[in-house]
Amino acid sequence: MNIVLFYFSGTGNTEKVVKEWQKSASSFNVTIDLVQIEKNDFDFSNLIKYDKVGFAYPIHAFNAPENVWKYAKKFPKLDKPMPLFFIMVSGEYMTINHSSADKTKRILKKRNFVFESDYHYIMPYNMIFRHTEIRAFKMYETMLKLVPIDVKEYLVDGVPHILKKHHLVGWFIWLLRIEQWFAPINGKFYKINKKKCIKCMKCVNSCPTHNISYVDGKFKFSNKCICCTRCSFNCPTDAFSIFILNNWRVNKPYAFKDPQKEEKDKHPHYCKKSYIRYYKEAEERISKSK
Ligand SMILES: Cc1cc2nc3c(=O)[nH]c(=O)nc-3n(C[C@H](O)[C@H](O)[C@H](O)COP(=O)(O)O)c2cc1C
Ligand code: SF4
Ligand code: SF4
Prior knowledge:
This protein is α/β, with parallel strands linked by helices.
């Protein structure tokens, strides 16, 4: 079986998940070709070579990031139905997040892609607040245990997985897609602290939408920001400021290693119930698969 999995990852969490899908699938002799949406270099005439198409993305304000559904609009209408699945990655296991693929689904349905299965993995926040390394590692470890179960169930045994969704929420969250109008405006006012910046150009070179440029010794920001936070998150000197969202800024990649030491959790009650539910469901599935 050959799968093509289109993905976007702002700060690397979704990329970790899709690479795990690819690794796990290969152990079952299933090939997953990973295609980075931001590279925009996929030849759509090759779609017919595949048995299933997947989309993976981080949830942004309950929706898929704008570049994901815009990319879906580029897909041609296929002659034969093509099975479609989604992989969502987010900071919290809220049922409202499960409808984030609805818009992309509608776009692809018109092009003969038939929705089959969807998955939601919790990975640490790159916005709002920094999860502790202990929490981040638990999320990562759980994802590593869930992926082989999902891959086997779906790609080997042919059993789809459907996330629980609330009726009509898909339309409601479409109204909440603040990011689509807010991000380009907010991204125009990003600032760089000249005293802290070491001019490594990491932010300029890694922006998926080329929103940042460095001209005549000055950083300039365009109106193409999709609020992925890659620029500020990866800045080695924490010199980046993301305007209105600056108080929610998270800087520095997570270690994803067992920290082996106590760390004060400043947000122990935030979305507590949804995390309990996620780990309970995950543990049940993991123990059932043994
Ligand atoms: C602009 C923005 C909005 C977000 N909105 C949500 C949200 O609505 N729900 C949620 O659970 N996580 C939300 N997150 C957190 C990310 O989905 C989460 O950190 C994810 O793991 C990031 O994946 P990535 O590293 O592949 O970009 C948001 C992150 C950003 C940057
Ligand atoms: S990533 Fe940070 S240090 Fe590097 S150029 Fe950008 S703002 Fe400066
Ligand atoms: S400017 Fe920063 S947040 Fe906006 S799209 Fe580029 S990397 Fe992402």
